[in-house]
Amino acid sequence: MPASSPDPSDSTCVNPQKSRTGLTRIWHAAGYSLAGLRAGWNEKAFRQEALAAVVLVPAAFWLGHGWMEVALLAGTVWLVLIVELLNSGIEAVVDRIGPEWHALSKQAKDMGSAAVLLALLLCAGVWLAALHQRFIA
Question: What pTM did the predictor assign?
Protein backbone atom coordinates (compact mmCIF):
# COMPACT_ATOMS: atom_id res chain seq x y z
CA MET A 1 0.00 0.00 0.00
CA PRO A 2 1.52 3.42 -0.95
CA ALA A 3 2.37 5.81 1.83
CA SER A 4 -0.15 8.60 2.18
CA SER A 5 0.89 12.17 1.56
CA PRO A 6 1.08 14.47 4.55
CA ASP A 7 -1.95 16.65 5.16
CA PRO A 8 -1.06 20.09 3.68
CA SER A 9 -3.28 21.81 6.26
CA ASP A 10 -1.14 20.37 9.07
CA SER A 11 1.60 23.02 9.18
CA THR A 12 3.60 21.21 11.85
CA CYS A 13 4.48 18.34 9.54
CA VAL A 14 5.17 20.52 6.50
CA ASN A 15 7.10 23.47 7.87
CA PRO A 16 7.88 24.17 11.52
CA GLN A 17 8.19 27.89 10.68
CA LYS A 18 4.40 28.06 10.22
CA SER A 19 3.80 27.27 13.89
CA ARG A 20 6.28 29.86 15.20
CA THR A 21 5.12 33.26 16.36
CA GLY A 22 6.59 36.56 17.50
CA LEU A 23 10.31 37.05 17.81
CA THR A 24 11.03 33.34 17.32
CA ARG A 25 9.41 33.48 13.88
CA ILE A 26 11.33 36.66 12.97
CA TRP A 27 14.62 35.16 14.20
CA HIS A 28 14.18 31.99 12.15
CA ALA A 29 12.97 33.93 9.10
CA ALA A 30 16.11 36.08 9.28
CA GLY A 31 18.20 32.91 9.33
CA TYR A 32 16.43 31.61 6.23
CA SER A 33 16.98 34.95 4.52
CA LEU A 34 20.70 34.87 5.32
CA ALA A 35 20.87 31.31 3.97
CA GLY A 36 19.23 32.58 0.78
CA LEU A 37 21.81 35.36 0.46
CA ARG A 38 24.60 32.80 0.96
CA ALA A 39 23.05 30.61 -1.73
CA GLY A 40 22.80 33.65 -4.00
CA TRP A 41 26.45 34.42 -3.42
CA ASN A 42 27.25 31.04 -4.99
CA GLU A 43 25.74 32.35 -8.24
CA LYS A 44 28.32 34.15 -10.40
CA ALA A 45 25.83 36.71 -11.76
CA PHE A 46 24.62 37.63 -8.26
CA ARG A 47 28.21 38.05 -7.03
CA GLN A 48 29.00 40.38 -9.94
CA GLU A 49 25.86 42.43 -9.34
CA ALA A 50 26.47 42.55 -5.58
CA LEU A 51 30.01 43.81 -6.12
CA ALA A 52 28.66 46.46 -8.49
CA ALA A 53 26.14 47.41 -5.80
CA VAL A 54 28.98 47.97 -3.32
CA VAL A 55 30.16 50.75 -5.65
CA LEU A 56 26.84 52.00 -7.00
CA VAL A 57 24.81 52.35 -3.80
CA PRO A 58 27.31 54.73 -2.16
CA ALA A 59 27.68 56.52 -5.52
CA ALA A 60 23.93 57.13 -5.49
CA PHE A 61 24.40 59.40 -2.47
CA TRP A 62 27.02 61.40 -4.37
CA LEU A 63 25.15 61.57 -7.67
CA GLY A 64 21.59 62.07 -6.46
CA HIS A 65 20.17 65.49 -5.66
CA GLY A 66 17.80 64.92 -2.76
CA TRP A 67 16.44 61.79 -1.19
CA MET A 68 14.13 60.88 -4.09
CA GLU A 69 16.95 60.72 -6.62
CA VAL A 70 19.16 58.80 -4.21
CA ALA A 71 16.31 56.38 -3.55
CA LEU A 72 15.69 55.90 -7.26
CA LEU A 73 19.36 55.33 -8.06
CA ALA A 74 19.98 52.96 -5.15
CA GLY A 75 16.56 51.33 -5.52
CA THR A 76 17.21 50.26 -9.08
CA VAL A 77 20.47 48.64 -7.97
CA TRP A 78 18.68 46.78 -5.16
CA LEU A 79 15.97 45.77 -7.64
CA VAL A 80 18.56 44.05 -9.85
CA LEU A 81 19.78 42.03 -6.85
CA ILE A 82 16.23 41.10 -5.85
CA VAL A 83 15.28 39.98 -9.36
CA GLU A 84 18.53 38.01 -9.69
CA LEU A 85 17.75 36.12 -6.46
CA LEU A 86 14.24 35.36 -7.70
CA ASN A 87 15.63 34.18 -11.04
CA SER A 88 18.10 31.90 -9.25
CA GLY A 89 15.23 30.54 -7.17
CA ILE A 90 13.22 29.77 -10.31
CA GLU A 91 16.22 28.03 -11.85
CA ALA A 92 16.77 25.96 -8.70
CA VAL A 93 13.14 24.82 -8.62
CA VAL A 94 13.18 23.91 -12.31
CA ASP A 95 16.46 22.03 -11.89
CA ARG A 96 15.05 20.18 -8.88
CA ILE A 97 12.17 18.89 -10.99
CA GLY A 98 14.59 17.22 -13.36
CA PRO A 99 17.53 17.75 -15.71
CA GLU A 100 15.68 16.73 -18.87
CA TRP A 101 14.70 19.41 -21.38
CA HIS A 102 11.08 20.53 -21.30
CA ALA A 103 9.43 23.48 -23.04
CA LEU A 104 7.87 24.77 -19.80
CA SER A 105 11.18 24.51 -17.95
CA LYS A 106 12.86 26.49 -20.71
CA GLN A 107 10.05 29.05 -20.66
CA ALA A 108 10.32 29.52 -16.88
CA LYS A 109 14.10 29.96 -17.04
CA ASP A 110 13.87 32.30 -20.04
CA MET A 111 11.25 34.45 -18.33
CA GLY A 112 13.39 34.71 -15.20
CA SER A 113 16.34 35.71 -17.34
CA ALA A 114 14.20 38.29 -19.15
CA ALA A 115 13.17 39.75 -15.79
CA VAL A 116 16.84 40.20 -14.88
CA LEU A 117 17.50 41.84 -18.25
CA LEU A 118 14.63 44.28 -17.76
CA ALA A 119 15.83 45.15 -14.26
CA LEU A 120 19.35 45.74 -15.59
CA LEU A 121 18.03 47.93 -18.42
CA LEU A 122 15.94 49.95 -15.97
CA CYS A 123 18.94 50.39 -13.69
CA ALA A 124 21.21 51.42 -16.56
CA GLY A 125 18.61 53.85 -17.91
CA VAL A 126 18.11 55.56 -14.56
CA TRP A 127 21.86 55.81 -13.95
CA LEU A 128 22.56 57.12 -17.46
CA ALA A 129 19.82 59.74 -17.10
CA ALA A 130 21.24 60.84 -13.72
CA LEU A 131 24.78 61.02 -15.11
CA HIS A 132 23.54 63.01 -18.10
CA GLN A 133 21.67 65.40 -15.81
CA ARG A 134 24.71 65.91 -13.59
CA PHE A 135 27.46 66.26 -16.22
CA ILE A 136 25.91 67.17 -19.56
CA ALA A 137 22.63 69.04 -19.07
Answer: 0.83
